[in-house]
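Entry 14. Structure prediction run on the chain below.
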Amino acid sequence: MKEKIITDANFEQAESVKNPRFVEFFATWCPHCQRMMPIIAQLQKEYGDRVDFFLVDVDQAPQACDKYGISSTPTMFFYKKNQSEHDDQLLGESPAQALRERLDKIV
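Output returned:
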């Protein structure tokens, strides 16, 4: 499954999913976000059938950023199945293992 790019226009897509989900707030101009992209792509291959992946471009989703208090990128939220509040979050560039540990907790 390919990740879904989210903007303010379609943000309700990320909020309405009942499956475990990973949501990353990123910026195309952010070097830390760019370094995270291959890691997230790999994790998506590993968890794609069990976790829905959403990428929120902060420049295209200022209302969502305000709603969730996003002030730095990357910011990653982890949601358990059927939860509307995130279970865990990571701020900044993170190694794959740190993301795996959090993904394992939500599946």
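The chain has one domain: 4-106.
Filed with the rest of this week's runs.
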